Structures are given as C-alpha cells and as structure tokens.
Write a sequence for this structure.
C-alpha cells in the first residue's frame, strides 16, 4: 500500500466538482485516509510549492491556490502515486486524455482542478506539510 497527497484545487471546488472528483477517486480504488477542506494561506501555498519558486508562473500559482477553499486528501492504494497521476491526466487539461479528471474539470495549465505528488519523496514531504502523523497512521 502506498500513500499520495491529492488536492482538489480552488477552481474545481468553486465550480462544484468536489463530489464528482471524490467519486472518481473512489471508483479508481483509492481509500481516503484523511481529508480536510481549508483555504490555504500564502505561507502554506508558498512552502508547498517551494520547488517552483523561481518559475515565471509562481506568483500566479500562489494567488490561484489561495483564492478559495481547497480539499486536501491523503489517498491510499497499491501504486497510489502513479495511479493518481494517471487518473488526473496531463498537467495541461488541453493535453490530458479523454475521461481524465483534468480533461473533465480543468480549465487551463494553471487552473487544472487537481494536484498529485510526483514521487515517493515528494509524497512524504507533501503529506507531512498538511497532515499530522496520527491522521495518516
Ligand atoms: P501541479 O501539479 O499542482 O504542480 C504545479 C502547478 O503549477 C501545476 O499543477 C499547475 O497548476 C501550475 N503550472 C505548471 N506549469 C504552469 C505554467 N506553464 N503556467 C502556469 N501554471 C503552471
């Protein structure tokens, strides 16, 4: 069993897609180990995306991620990291495969509905950024 961090981003929450995305998560065999809706502070978003701080899209990304509520999730299943990335589809919704979450619910490369960890090291950092150990035990 592997864990990954998923986020339903402010665009998808505001457009009312939370239920449909949670259904897709469960339909794909993930167990929801922990879940919380919250509005990120700039400090929380900047720390989470610190790896991107030199990128030209960083300030826009932080404004977007703090504009309204997000849903933070710890998902668990076999091969959870890769499987969740497959279910989400490509970062850019225009390039994502039909039926993927970003194709169905994303708007553009920034407002792309969901986030997922990209490696075991990233998942460990991202899960610990938002959840306490006891919530994931
Ligand atoms: P995510 O998987 O959360 O990881 C970093 C985020 O930055 C990404 O999804 C997008 O929301 C955003 N992003 C990545 N590339 C670009 C880009 N070229 N322009 C704007 N936003 C981007």
């Amino acid at each position: 069993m592997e864990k990954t961090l998923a986020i339903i981003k402010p665009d998808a929450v505001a457009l009312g897609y939370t239920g449909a995305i949670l259904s897709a998560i469960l339909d794909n065999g993930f167990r929801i180990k922990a879940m919380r809706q919250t509005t990120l502070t700039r400090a929380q978003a900047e720390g989470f995306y610190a790896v991107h701080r030199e990128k030209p899209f960083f300030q826009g990304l932080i404004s977007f991620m703090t504009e309204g509520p997000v849903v933070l999730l710890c998902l668990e299943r076999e091969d959870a990291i890769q499987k969740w990335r497959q279910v989400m589809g490509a970062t850019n919704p225009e390039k994502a495969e039909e039926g993927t979450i970003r194709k169905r619910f994303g708007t553009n490369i920034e407002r792309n509905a969901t986030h997922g960890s990209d490696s075991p090291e990233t998942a460990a950092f991202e899960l610990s950024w938002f959840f306490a150990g006891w919530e994931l035990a």
User: Anything to note?
Assistant: The mean pLDDT is 98.
